[in-house]
Amino acid sequence: MQEHLPDVLPPARSASNARERLGEAVVVPANLLRVPSVKQRTEFSCGNAATLALLRYWRWDVYEHVEEAALYEPLETSRSRGTEPGPIATYLNTVAGVSAEYRFGDVTMSDLQRAIDAGQPPIVDLQAWRDRADPWPEVWDAGHYVVLVGYDEERLFFMDPSRVAPEPYVYLPKAELDERWHDLAGERDDRVEHMVVFVRGSTIPRLPDGPLPEAVGKLG
Known about the structure:
The strands form two sheets. An eight-stranded mixed sheet has the order 1-10-6-5-4-3-9-2. The chain contains six helices and ten strands, in the order H-E-H-H-H-E-H-E-E-E-E-H-E-E-E-E. The protein has a single domain, classed as Alpha-Beta Complex (Cathepsin B, Chain A), CATH 3.90.70.10. It has 220 residues and is of the alpha+beta class. Helices cover 21% and strands 24% of the residues.
């Protein structure tokens, strides 16, 4: 998995700023799972940040003060290749009260929505940005991990590690998911579709402090 961040990341916006830009912002859904915001510290560490967000969600008592760099070695993260989904699932399965399964290929949007309905936010690997006007199915160099946190009839909502609080959440139209839901994986950079790490917890989630954002912007 090779992540490519845009030259300029989208700035954080307050809910009031978002309401002023109604053409780009939408109201969050009632089923939004408030996964803590974790901002990735490098251009290659979105997998570490997404994993840490869910570790803090399910095991705040253990991971509150853990930084993303502490996960580089167990997740086999490197500057050149980022983080593969397999090691993410393997590590999460070593954490008491948490289990994970890496799946790809036959995963559907309905599977993602069922995870949200069960209160179990998954990590999704997709194409987040594009520098040219190429169709999304032809973009393979902008892989990025995000945490699915909710959905409505038209959109999916994610915690995006490339953004910062107070607005860490973004949305993606459901119509765009299938054409962006792919990435390179493995030593040979195989082209893989519908990559997701399903994460389940048996503890009471730790919810972030502060009010829920009223509106969020689009991913990418």
